[in-house]
Specification:
Oligomer: single chain
Helix content: 55-70%
Largest sheet: none
Shape: elongated
CATH architecture of one domain: Up-down Bundle
CATH topology of one domain: de novo design (two linked rop proteins)
CATH class of one domain: Mainly Alpha
Number of strands: 0
Low-confidence stretches: none
CATH superfamily of one domain: 23S rRNA-intervening sequence
Order of helices and strands: HHHH
Radius of gyration: 15 Å
């Protein structure tokens, strides 16, 4: 078992990077009318988890780290709701929604 030397070694951080990249590609096809609403929110929500995991990792107290992990989880659920909205509005396909959800 390898030792964790940085937040970059955390599997949860790596998974969130994959989500961020997926969303970054996905939102490029959204209509311009969504630039300041859904696209902006999805961009921020997809970037938040990695940031919070990194910040929590840098905290000295376990309880603080837990709180940042909870915030990351909340951002991922917010992003899931945005994916549902995008699917319902016809901006993404059902398959893209399923891929984003998983």
């Amino acid at each position: 078992m390898s030792k964790i030397k940085s937040f970059e070694d955390l599997e949860c951080w790596k998974a969130c990077v994959e989500v961020r990249i997926y969303i970054s590609v996905l939102i490029k096809k959204f209509p311009v009318s969504e630039k300041f609403d859904l696209v902006s929110n999805m961009r921020r929500a997809s970037r938040s988890p990695t940031r919070n995991i990194a910040e929590g990792y840098g905290r000295y107290h376990f309880q603080e780290n837990i709180q940042f992990c909870r915030q990351s989880r909340g951002s991922l659920f917010e992003l899931l709701d945005d994916l549902i909205t995008a699917r319902d509005e016809g901006y993404i396909t059902e398959q893209e929604y399923i891929e984003g959800k998983n």
